[in-house]
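Hi L.,

As promised, Ribonuclease P protein subunit p29:
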Amino acid sequence: PQGSEKAKTFVHGFLKRSMPKMKDEAIQDMLTRKAVILEHYHKKQTKQKRKKTKGFTAKQRRELRLFEIEPEQQKYAIFLPLHELWKQYIRDLCHGLKPDAQPHMIQSKLLKADLHGAIVTVTKSKCPSYVGITGIILQEFKHIFKIITKEDKLKVVPKLNNVFSLELDGFISYIYGSKFLLRASERSAKKFKLKGTIDL
């Protein structure tokens, strides 16, 4: 243990080194109060921004052919199990399509549902060649449906100016493509408003 004089000398020297701009009189004044408060400044740590992982651009996706279905995979029979899964998904979503179910409730659920695997038919169109096309939806994009028909033909049908119908357990729903120009992920968060009349 150090003596009191040595301790005073050490503290005086420590304060002199720690606060060189302070005069000796001020240091002595601090020592006479018997309590020394040393201010400590925390260095502000700069937060490192997390780099967002960039996905592929539309051009890169086209070059990599990520969304293209190979010709040997374009078979209607291959996607029938997908349709069965979709039917079960809709039944679970609507708590069973019972005869006493309210149509507007089912319709509102279908508007936000994933349609990959649904069998749809083009019932109305401004282009007559599209009318009657029936098949399983393989891909849904913002502006088009890719549909595989029973004849194993992949059809690209635009949503604009087309009306689609889908039937499940006796319940028939109509999709007005012109009001459906959204990606599947965007539809799930969108609030659809009831409208009296809808045109193509």
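Residues 1-32 form one domain.

Thanks again for sending the construct details.

K.
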